[in-house]
């Protein structure tokens, strides 16, 4: 039996046909809509109409009518979905675009690297005094998207924290010693170059590893932050000892400066983000959509500036060999962190997420700190070349992994 369109339906459809580009009317709570049942001609049905109350005064009733009218027009071979969806999503377009800015991060890092090589003045204005606040802003972005309970949960995984520490201060220094020794003995590079590679392997984890983890596995970002904080806090003692052991000379470290750096780069901005998120949630919600695009620009400067500021050394005759050695060093560290974690946490429910997190933590070092130490405590400028190249290489490799692993997660969902 054919369907019967009620008088109310007919009036509504006619009015809507004349106003395709306008919004659907909102049915208020005081109104009550009576729709006769379809597919029936029984007297009992006509005398007992089905009452439909709006779900809510605003969006609920609108969504109810949108769904109802969409079905009616579908029966008439008319598609209102595209127009109505476009109308209701226009306001969200800008916010969605800003939130998706992180997806272009690897491309931006690559572009900033090329720009720094071709036109160094584009980044030379971003001097070393901006490094601490720039990295601090990235930590603020992580903090405002986190909860204090997440950090308390991180300390409930001492096994993962210990493994991250081993990756930073055992596996990575061993790899640094191997590639630093190869630079001098196999490739006949100057001794300061080998010392620079070893110096990179002796510093703490990079704050960018926290941001990379946040982009791939947000739930484990606090764990990554705690790992980096522990390695950074103990770098005051561990870095000089490893440098003495691997490089063969004492490397003095400014203890007060190191503590100040930890407070500025890690603890203070994350605490500020957490407090803002808890005390002023409306403010947090207002600025949160803009953080991804600002973080992308921030990261581009952190990558391009060290390269531009050390362009003469990077473009030296042995620059390509150093690039190869530094790349192999970081690749080995990423792989070591990933597969070591896989063997230890093979039965964990979040084993893959832990593997990605520990891979970032082992493969990404605070190369900016190594560059600062090389500049301040070593007279030979060649020591600073590997840290400058490392800043670019580990960023490119890390955020390329972010892109690869994020795509894999989306496919598996």
TrEMBL record:
Protein biosynthesis recorded as keyword: no
Key words of the record: Chloroplast, Membrane, Plastid, Transit peptide, Transmembrane, Transmembrane helix, Transport
InterPro entries: BilAc:Na_symport/Acr3, Bilac:Na_transpt, Na+/solute_symporter_sf
Pfam families: SBF
Chief localization: membrane
UniProt KW Ribonucleoprotein keyword: no
Cellular component GO terms, alphabetical: chloroplast envelope; membrane
Membrane topology type: Multi-pass membrane protein
Residue spans crossing the bilayer: 104-124, 130-148, 169-187, 225-247, 259-277, 289-309, 321-345, 384-405
Highest taxon above the source species: Eukaryota
Compartments reported by the entry: Membrane; Plastid, Chloroplast envelope
PANTHER family xrefs: SODIUM-BILE ACID COTRANSPORTER, SODIUM_METABOLITE COTRANSPORTER BASS6, CHLOROPLASTIC-RELATED
Family affiliation: Belongs to the bile acid:sodium symporter (BASS) (TC 2.A.28) family.
Name used for this protein in its record: Sodium/metabolite cotransporter BASS6
